[in-house]
Amino acid sequence: MENRPFRRASPAAALGIAGAVVTLAVGAASAGAPRPTATIPRLGNLGLAPFVRVRDRVIREERALAAAQLAASHGGTYTTATGEQVKVFVSDAYPVDDTVNQHWADFLGALVHGSELAKITVYVAPFAEMQSACQSTEADGCYIFSNEEMVVPGDPPADGAPIEEIVAHEYGHHIALNRSNWP
After folding, report:
1. Residue 148 has pLDDT above 60, yes or no
2. Which uninterrupted H or E stretch holds 68?
3. Helices (H), 73-133
4. Are 167 and 141 in contact (CB under 8 A)?
5. Beta strand pairing call for 56-59 and 121-125
6. What is the mean pLDDT of the chain?
7. Tens digit of pLDDT for each residue in 63-116?
């Protein structure tokens, strides 16, 4: 290999090269832009918003989430800090991140619960996908009695209902299904 002296590029050539690099970088960033992750629910956010109205749908007829939705999702059974297990699945519209799924399991484990916690399957999806799964354009979330599944948004709904309130509300349906409050 022969040593050649370094020659400086002209200012015009340098600007042309810099422009090409910036164009390539911007194109690559937008083409492979990271997808936003699902919101991580925080226990400290419960009860902060006064007068929260959760619009939901309780599905009583025999129905389960579409097998295709669960098959395309990522997640599984997660163990909470107290040793309980929760099934959490997140839509494939969000990037795979087990720490997000674990936060969802820990949030549910921090709510008032009993042994029914192990029976729930939680599906977290972007708002539009959640509404499709719940078969409602007005719902903030839904609970499917027949399969003990709840579908909740992974991004805040336009009506401003906090995700934590939606999850706690839907989980309340699960508690009601699994407990007897007979006097």
Report:
1. yes
2. helix 67-72
3. 98-110, 127-133
4. yes
5. unpaired
6. 78
7. 666 656 766 788 999 999 889 999 999 999 999 999 999 999 999 999 988 899
Q: How would you class 17 by CB atoms within 10 Å of its CB: exposed for 0-12, middle for 13-18, buried for 19 or more?
A: exposed
124 forms beta bridges with: 90, 152
Domains of the chain: 53-178 (3.40.30)
Left if phi > 0, otherwise alpha if psi is -120 to 50, otherwise beta: which for 83?
left
The 3-state DSSP class for residue 160 equals coil
Q: At what angle do helices 98-110 and 163-178 cross, to 10 degrees?
A: 60
Q: Measured between alpha carbons, how far is 74 from 97 in angstroms, rounded to an integer? A: 9
Q: What is the pLDDT of residues 19-35, one digit of tens each?
A: 333 333 333 334 455 66
What torsion, rounded to 10 degrees, do the Cα atoms 142, 144, 145, 147 define? -150
